[in-house]
Amino acid sequence: MILDNFRLDGQVALVTGASTGLGQAIAIALAEAGADVVCHGNTHSPDATCEAVTIIGRKAFALTGDLSDRETPSQLIENTLAHFGQLDILVNNAGTIRRAPALEYSDEDWQTVIEVNLSSVFRLSQLAGRQMIAHGRGKILNIASLLSFQGGITVPAYAASKGGAAQLTGARERMGCQRDQRQRDRAGLYADGEYACIAARRNAQPADTRTHTSGALERALRAGGRRRVSLLGSE
């Protein structure tokens, strides 16, 4: 079992979009590895995920907030720090989608999807990264999509936002949060050697949900461990 290879005891993770699906599975997996978890939800309550975390024997804290509101990221980080006093792992999993042909796509839908799927990822990563560098450790995991590379039909904002999230991840890896190499090493805020798995997805065929979830869980757990790695997941 991958959980036998490392532990996350004493660490705190914030998982956005943790009420259901992939985010819920990642939150539970991090708890099984020993982390306490802040579970964020918006349209769905994260209470069920928090209950699953506490059953495992870890501490859970439920937060709600609409990530289309640009003030929500700072509230999530502030509330996490106020409750646990630290933040070691950030999983930017929350996302939304609006469907319409490009010529009929509304400005409102475009702004909402870009704000949730891309702008909030930047803001949360920036705020969390500052804390992580100050404390000398931390990992950030961004969940992207096959549409980051392939585009999509009737989902122009979703494809653009996920492509942006992929590029943002690469940019932050290279810039190291605009800190020098020594600080990047201490905080672990860059990637090394995982572009092969990203490139492989560019021509990949869709797999079943269990395959995607299993792979994302493994990458989430590895990202939370000692190896300095920031990875793109696949929905």
Given the helix and strand composition, which structural class is it?
Answer: alpha/beta
Query: Uncertain segments of ≥5 residues (pLDDT<50)?
Result: 180-212, 226-235
* Overall geometry: globular
Strand count, sense and barrel status of the largest sheet are:
6 strands, parallel
As a percent range, the share of strand residues is 5-15%
Gap from first CA to last CA: 23 Å
| Rg estimate, integer Å | 17 Å
List the helices and strands and how they pair.
Blueprint: E1 12-15, H1 21-32, E2 36-41, H2 47-56, E3 60-64, H3 72-84, E4 89-92, H4 107-135, E5 139-143, H5 147-150, H6 156-175, H7 181-187, H8 195-201, H9 209-224, E6 232-233
Helix pairs in contact: 1-2, 1-9, 3-4, 4-6, 4-7
Structure, explained:
The chain is of the alpha/beta class. Helices cover 50% and strands 11% of the residues. The protein is built from 9 helices and 6 strands; from the N terminus they run βαβαβαβαβαααααβ. The chain has helices spanning 21-32, 47-56, 72-84, 107-135, 147-150, 156-175, 181-187, 195-201, 209-224; strands at residues 12-15, 36-41, 60-64, 89-92, 139-143, 232-233. The protein is globular, with a radius of gyration of 17 Å.
